Amino acid sequence: MAIVKGIIPALTVCATAGVLVIASAPALGAGKPIDEPAAAPVVKPVHEPYRPPMSCMYQVVKVRPSSFLNVRQGPGLRYRPVGELTVADGRFVGACGVSHGWVALTSSSGKLGWASAGYLYRIPTPHPSLVRRPALSCSYRVANVRRGGHLQVRKGPGLTYEQIGTLDETDGRFAGACSAWRGWVAVTTSGGLPGWASSRYLKK
């Protein structure tokens, strides 16, 4: 009893002096639960990479006929596949430059993407003076071009050659070579200049 009586006055003095601190048990549920999962890592979105102009021709190489080459969303394996290319696809258009071993191109389904340059062969583009221009003994008209659009006529048989004129539906029928050379037909522009147009947009 003497000890208790001695403690009570001491507590009273300390409380009066403002130094008494009474610790209490933490409230139920306060603080971070032990079983709370760690915060998920922040995954940065993959942005669409810069895509250079596509004006060269390629074909798939080093790929078995029964297999295919992945076309990815960007120039690297970390990008997801968006399409594919096979040897049977033949020639297709792509960028003339290579970005870190990858080439911007179009998949067989028409989607834009990137493929490994190690499995692509760039088809050389001959100088216009080296391409023999055939006689224009057949008749054509523009086809597969949306209304109000036009077909580009280039200096040589390929997208790498400069544009020298156009053709459109209002030109009606015009003269052109009877056979195509690598997908291009020798024609004459609406302004009378000799050039080449894609056979895909011409109909005899």
Automatic annotation (TrEMBL):
Cleaved signal peptide residues: 1-29
Organism whose genome encodes this protein: Planotetraspora phitsanulokensis
Protein name: SH3b domain-containing protein
PROSITE patterns: SH3B
Alphabetic keyword roster: Signal
Domain SH3b residues, every copy: 58-124
